[in-house]
Write a structure and sequence with these properties.
With about 450 residues, the chain is mainly α. About 65% of the residues lie in helices and about 5% in strands. The chain is built from 16 helices and two strands. A two-stranded antiparallel sheet has the order 1-2. The chain is globular, with a radius of gyration of 24 Å. The relative contact order is 0.12. The C terminus is likely disordered.
Length: about 450
């Protein structure tokens, strides 16, 4: 039954796509974020629906869509360079067979992010893309929020519809994304046009934000808690009454503490005592191994190069209570530990060139959104939505880059779609400015001919 429901849903989207080609783009966004094939039992597991949707989107754009004044932004060329570089490192990888599995989804994420801005020619398309991204992630987040309220969750225990611990269904990844989309949700609650921001839309937005805040609690991920703190600081820039905001945020945090499950509070206590936690201790050891590895392999070892690591780390535990407390130290040995950091993931797999390209793509996005915030700071009512959207995209991107310190999400498709939306917004506004610059000249020429 579940298979048939998804087939009917996708069939309706594809049918609509023959009339509105951009629907194919939105279909791919939904499929790539939610991965409905993971939720089904048989039929969709055997069909490459993601590749089909992507092919239809590109074909519809090439054949039907308007391509006047189509322009490629510098970051699209950087992503193309990163794509080609990753292809080369995959061919020369230390583990070529295992690397091929990661390459099969990485190239699609990069290729679609390069293609996506070409389709974002109108404000409606930009908003529709972001709306689909938020709602697709919300389909996972709402389930997680409800289960957190019901059971309290726990580290590695919260089931987000599937038991597959990959993509957005992984605890630290969904926690980072859930907090990163909060600025976009707030933007929709004020400036959305697909769904006019009446009381019903605002109520849903605020409920979704609450659910986003519950995800780090339900997954008991330290990354999510730190992302919440960072987002609270970032939002200080845009609030009008900062002291009131700080007072309300502090009061909300204090009132929330008694309701937090014990699994969450115990997990958060390990932030200050990382040596007693194997997860944190192994991360530091893997990071040191990666730094030593790239000294001998400056171009990286290709995807999943971490499989060859052999690490030793010291684990410290406090045993007993009060005066009877003792510190026990033990030397642990592990192998094939993942990077647990996007920065070290890029460094170990793609070396210094790959890391520099990846940083340029991401930091370039923060810079361009800052340019838009300053350029449209005094815009008229018709462009009042621009600065808040640029700020939302910038803040969400900063949260991602911060969360990426602790989870290997360098090629997370959701974030590359966010980057594509940034480029689309930038090029759309550039076209608008270009049209406004030339229209007076055209009017004068018509007037001269009439005279």
């Amino acid at each position: 039954m579940r298979d048939l429901v998804f087939v009917a849903f996708l069939g309706l989207l594809f049918a609509a796509g023959f009339r509105k080609p951009f629907v194919f783009v939105l279909t791919y966004v939904y499929i790539d974020i939610v991965s409905p094939q993971r939720l089904t039992y048989l039929l969709l597991n055997s069909i490459p629906i993601s590749l089909i949707a992507c092919g239809l989107a590109v074909l519809a754009w090439a054949v039907v869509d308007d391509k006047r004044d189509t322009r490629m932004a510098p970051r699209q060329f950087l992503m193309l360079a990163l794509l080609l570089y990753c292809l080369w490192t995959t061919k020369t990888a230390d583990f070529p067979v295992e690397a091929q599995f990661k390459w099969e989804w990485v190239w699609k994420a990069l290729a679609f992010a390069i293609f996506l801005p070409l389709t974002l020619r109108t404000k409606l398309r930009i908003e529709s893309l972001l709306l689909f991204m938020v709602l697709s992630a919300a389909s996972i987040i709402i389930v997680g929020g409800i289960k957190t309220l019901g059971s309290g969750g726990g580290y590695g225990e919260l089931n987000l519809m599937v038991s597959n611990n990959a993509g957005l269904y992984e605890g630290s990844t969904i926690s980072t994304v859930a907090i990163a989309i909060i600025p976009l949700i707030l933007w929709f609650s004020k400036f959305g046009t697909v769904f006019a921001p009446d009381w019903r839309v605002r109520a849903f937005c605020y409920a979704l934000i609450f659910s986003c805040m519950l995800i780090p609690v339900g997954t008991s991920t330290r990354t999510g808690l730190l992302c919440i703190v960072l987002l609270g600081v970032l939002m200080l820039r845009d609030v009008k009454r900062r002291l009131t905001y700080l007072a309300m945020a502090g009061a909300a945090a204090v009132m929330a503490v008694p309701f937090l499950p014990s699994a969450f509070t115990q997990r958060m206590e390990t932030i200050g005592t990382y040596q007693s936690d194997a997860s944190a201790s192994t991360r530091l050891a893997v990071w040191m191994w990666t730094l030593d590895y790239v000294k001998q392999n400056p171009f990286g070892g290709g995807f999943v190069a971490y499989l060859q690591n052999r690490i030793r780390y010291e684990k410290v535990a406090v045993v007993g209570e009060g005066a009877n407390q003792t510190v026990e130290r033990s030397l642990e040995v592990d192998a094939g530990r993942a990077y647990h950091s996007a920065y070290f993931e890029m460094l170990g797999e793609q070396g210094y060139p790959g890391l520099m390209l990846w940083l340029a793509i991401n930091l370039g996005g923060l810079f361009r959104m800052e340019v838009l915030r300053r350029r449209y700071a005094k815009a008229g009512p018709e462009d009042a939505w621009v600065v808040p959207l640029a700020a939302a995209l910038q803040n969400g991107h900063v949260v991602y880059l911060f969360g990426a310190n602790f989870v290997a999400i360098a090629f997370q498709p959701f974030v590359f779609m966010l980057i594509g939306a940034q480029i689309g917004l930038d090029t759309y506004l550039a076209r608008k400015r270009s049209e406004q610059t030339w229209s007076p000249i055209q009017r004068r020429k018509k007037g001269a001919v009439a005279a």
